[in-house]
């Protein structure tokens, strides 16, 4: 009896061997997509052009040793294009490690981001912490670039964002979950970094501000820096005070910003920014002469610049700071409140209160 | 007397049965020379009977010395003989003299539960010496010892130890009952006894702890718990125990506090690793490769490219190899043991990867699993963990990462449900003596 049972168990265990033929897709049977770009193809029958960069993994990691292939397909929707791409590769496409999604500039202008966003947020293997950006002039050129310094495919672009690799002061980082939230939140508009190819490297120093669907405004690098500091309190930035013969440059190591809405019928948005840092470039013995005065002068200059940028954003009719959300949160949320805010916003005044504190003039050697 | 004994025993060649005559009186004597201490026998019987013979003195000696037992029923004679007693008949009276040969006279060295700075003496295979060791460390009048002699073929003496002031009556009564009800058959070691008194055969974790250290036993008794010692076994059984007791090495009591805390943490981490790592490898490689960092994913992808079989076959293959290696080196004599390690470590590890049979990460997984398993201080417990990891492997094959998480949850539920002689097995805070629930499992 016992022997029969043991035999039966052994038989069951041998069935495990047959599992090799089942749907088990081991890691080596999957093709890792490392970046994906969506473009507008000018063909009304198949308007979406999907470009995928697929990693060819190797067990050795070395400088410039990243191997990848780029595949493109046009279709009537992103989902169809990806299905179509599957038939051109020999392994299962896996988006689990795809952290960069590039939306072509033209696609957003013609079609908006909604269709792409739907596909991105519905697929189960796409991570919410992926970076989303605008590709200028198109997504294909950004996906297709293979920088020489890359150690493994797709890493270079990924390291450009957040604090993972470089902490560039004028790179806006927008994650997929944040983009989704900003698209569906009342009173908060999405903002996306703009990436373009510049001499065998990526240049991501501008930002696109969108209404809920399409781009309304592109910020230039300086404005993007100001936006980063005032909206996100990004650290490790710089603050420049024009001066002769040489500009005075403050390396800001720590920045915090806080938004306050004041006034009922005539609201004023007060942005409190405090910046700490040390002087990276200045004429000799400048601090000894007038430490406080220099701090105030730098603060005033920053305020003026930031206010100019804020008015520019306001005039474009978008709200990436979430002033509207602040307003709805601060005020009793009766019906018509949002309509009232939409009337008020084009007239809102901004006041940037910058509190610059200079820690010193750098190291003394 | 001699006829009666010979009737039952036959005439084995290692048995001596004679009638001695010193010219004044006769004495019948029988014993197993191999089991008796001849010096004792000579001093206590032979010398007074032969060349210093004085009938009055000899009679007085037999009746007053505590070494001699009188009035033992004839049907018990053979049992005593087989334990190393000497039987004499003098002037129509039968006396039993205890002259058992003691194999061990000093404590053993610790072998299984080595300690760096703690006591180095371990239990021996002699019950009396073991009791001495315990009494030396736990030297208070409350220490109680109860003897049990199961009616089976080995008839090894079993001693139940507890602290009378602290013990839990329900647990004690239950253990007494189980010791009394031991079935027949050979009872050879403490491990076997532990298995018999824990009863349920298919438990996933041990509910008794086996130790060779008198100091561990003393600490256990001091908590109001019980210990069982058995003659002929150099291990004691501790009960009831908790899950967390198994992760203690005795050194934790003797080393600096920070270090021992760190080591305890290390043991728990190791336990989790040895339990989960193969399962995690399968589920991540086959189901959720996005859990890795991208670098690792590409490296594994690259090194797995040459592997012909799915991940779980790879894992089972390597686990089989390492288990075989451990088992082989355990049974091998010391002199050949290093050969096994060389063959296993070098040839299987490196070559299997170069031959493309397994990925390089798998080699690391296998070694971590093997080494972490040895970190667990109790060998019984580490056996249980060793077998349990296969359950996780099977779950991972069929259900991936979700299966592993659900499996871990079920394991915790199972542990919470377990009782060791009435005390909650997974209890973080140990209950005070006498407060355990009445239900005994």
Q: Which structural class do the helices and strands of chain B define?
A: alpha+beta
- Which H/E pattern describes the elements of chain B? HEEHHEHEEEEHEEHHEHEEHHHHHHHEE
Report on the biggest sheet of chain B. 5 strands, antiparallel
**Basic shape of chain A:** globular
> Helical amount among residues of chain B, as a percent range?
40-55%
**Oligomer kind:** heterodimer
Rg from Cα of chain A: 26 Å
β-strand percent of chain B reads 5-15%
Please, how many helices of chain B?
15
Q: How many domain modules of chain A?
A: 2
Strand arrangement, largest sheet of chain B?
A: 1-2-4-5-3
Provide a descriptive summary of the structure in words.
The complex is a heterodimer of chains A (365) and B (441). Helices cover 33% and strands 29% of the residues of chain A. Chain A has 365 residues and is α/β, with parallel strands linked by helices. Chain A has 2 domains: 26-219; 220-365, Nutrient germinant receptor protein C, domain 3 (GMP Synthetase, Chain A, domain 3, 2-Layer Sandwich). The longest helix of chain A is centred in the last third of the chain and has 25 residues, at 291-315. Chain A starts with a helix and ends in a 5-residue tail after the last strand. The model of chain A has no long low-confidence stretch (mean pLDDT 86). Chain B has 441 residues and is of the alpha+beta class. Chain B folds into 3 domains: 2-98, no CATH class; 108-240, no CATH class; 261-420, no CATH class. In chain B, the strands form 4 sheets. A 5-stranded antiparallel sheet of chain B has the order 1-2-4-5-3, with helices on both faces. In chain B, strands 8-9-11-12-10 form a 5-stranded antiparallel sheet, with helices on both faces. In chain B, strands 6-7 form a two-stranded antiparallel ribbon. The longest helix of chain B has 39 residues, at 379-417. The radius of gyration of chain B is 29 Å and the shape is elongated. At the A-B interface, strand 1 of A face helix 11 and helix 12 of B.
């Amino acid at each position: 009896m016992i022997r029969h049972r043991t035999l039966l168990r052994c038989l069951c265990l041998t069935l495990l061997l047959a599992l090799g033929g089942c749907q088990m897709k081991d890691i080596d049977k999957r093709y890792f997509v490392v970046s994906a770009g969506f473009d507008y193809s000018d063909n009304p029958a198949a308007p979406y052009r999907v470009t995928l960069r697929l990693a060819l993994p190797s067990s050795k990691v070395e400088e410039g040793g990243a191997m990848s292939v780029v595949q493109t397909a046009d279709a009537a929707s992103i989902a169809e294009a990806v299905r179509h791409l599957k038939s051109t590769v020999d392994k299962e496409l896996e988006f689990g490690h795809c952290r960069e999604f590039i939306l072509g500039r033209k696609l957003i202008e013609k079609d908006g981001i909604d269709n792409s966003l739907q596909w991105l947020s519905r697929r189960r293997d796409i991570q919410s912490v992926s970076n989303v950006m605008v590709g200028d002039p198109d997504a294909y050129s950004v996906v297709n670039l293979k920088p020489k310094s890359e150690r493994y495919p797709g890493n270079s672009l990924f390291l450009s964002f957040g604090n993972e690799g470089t902490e560039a002061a004028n790179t806006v980082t927008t994650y997929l979950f944040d983009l989704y939230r900003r698209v569906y939140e009342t009173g908060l508009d999405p903002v996306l970094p703009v990436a373009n190819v510049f001499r065998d490297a990526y240049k991501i120093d501008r930002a696109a501000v969108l209404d809920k669907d399409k781009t309304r405004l592109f910020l230039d690098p300086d404005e993007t820096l100001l936006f980063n500091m005032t909206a996100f309190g990004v650290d490790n930035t710089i603050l420049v005070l024009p001066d002769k013969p040489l500009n005075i440059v403050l390396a800001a190591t720590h920045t915090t910003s806080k938004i306050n809405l004041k006034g009922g019928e005539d609201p004023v948005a007060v942005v409190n920014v405090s910046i700490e840092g040390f002087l990276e470039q200045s004429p000799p013995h400048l601090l000894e002469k007038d430490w406080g005065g220099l701090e105030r002068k730098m603060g005033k200059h920053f305020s003026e610049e930031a206010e100019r940028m804020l008015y520019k954003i306001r005039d474009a009719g978008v709200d990436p700071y979430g002033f509207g959300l602040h307003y709805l949160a601060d005020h009793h949320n009766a019906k018509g409140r949002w309509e009232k805010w939409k009337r008020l916003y084009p007239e809102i005044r901004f006041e940037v209160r910058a509190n610059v504190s200079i820690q010193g003039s750098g190291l003394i050697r | 007397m001699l006829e009666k004994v010979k009737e039952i025993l036959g005439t084995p060649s290692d048995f001596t049965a004679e009638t001695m005559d010193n010219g004044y009186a006769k004495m019948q004597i029988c014993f197993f020379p191999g089991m008796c201490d001849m010096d004792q026998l000579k001093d206590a019987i032979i010398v007074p009977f032969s060349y210093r013979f004085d009938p009055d003195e000899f009679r007085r000696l037999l009746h007053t010395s505590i070494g001699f037992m009188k009035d033992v029923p004839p049907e018990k004679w053979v049992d005593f003989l087989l334990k190393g007693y000497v039987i004499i008949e003098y002037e129509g009276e039968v006396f039993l003299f205890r002259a058992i040969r003691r194999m061990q006279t000093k404590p053993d060295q610790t072998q299984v539960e080595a300690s760096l700075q703690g006591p180095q003496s371990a239990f021996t295979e002699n019950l009396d010496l073991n009791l001495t060791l315990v009494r030396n460390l736990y030297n208070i009048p409350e220490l109680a010892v109860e003897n049990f002699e199961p009616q089976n073929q080995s008839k090894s003496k079993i001693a139940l130890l507890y602290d009378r002031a602290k013990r839990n009556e329900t647990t004690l009564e239950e253990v007494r009952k189980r010791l009394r009800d031991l079935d027949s058959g050979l009872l050879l070691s403490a491990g076997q006894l532990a298995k018999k008194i824990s009863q349920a055969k298919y438990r996933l974790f041990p509910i008794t702890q086996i130790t060779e250290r008198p100091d561990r036993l003393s600490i256990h008794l001091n908590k109001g718990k019980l210990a069982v010692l058995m003659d002929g076994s150099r291990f004691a059984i501790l009960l009831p125990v908790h899950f967390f007791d198994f992760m203690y090495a005795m050194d934790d009591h003797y080393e600096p506090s920070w270090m021992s805390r760190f080591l305890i943490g290390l043991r728990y981490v190791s336990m989790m690793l040895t339990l989960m790592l193969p399962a995690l490898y399968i589920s991540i490689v086959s189901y959720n490769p996005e859990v890795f960092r991208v670098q690792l994913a590409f490296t594994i992808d690259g090194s797995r490219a040459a592997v012909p079989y799915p991940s779980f076959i790879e894992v089972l293959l390597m686990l089989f190899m390492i288990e075989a290696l451990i088992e082989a080196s355990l049974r091998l004599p010391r002199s050949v043991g290093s050969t096994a390690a060389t063959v296993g470590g070098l040839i299987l590890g490196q070559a299997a990867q170069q031959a493309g049979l397994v990925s390089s990460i798998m080699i690391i997984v296998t070694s971590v699993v093997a080494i972490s398993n040895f970190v667990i201080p109790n060998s019984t417990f580490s056996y249980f963990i060793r077998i349990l990891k296969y359950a996780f492997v099977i779950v991972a094959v069929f259900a991936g990462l979700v299966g592993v998480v659900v499996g871990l949850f079920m394991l915790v539920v199972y542990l919470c449900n377990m009782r060791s002689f009435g005390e909650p097995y997974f209890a973080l805070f140990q209950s005070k003596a006498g407060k355990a629930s009445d239900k005994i499992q």
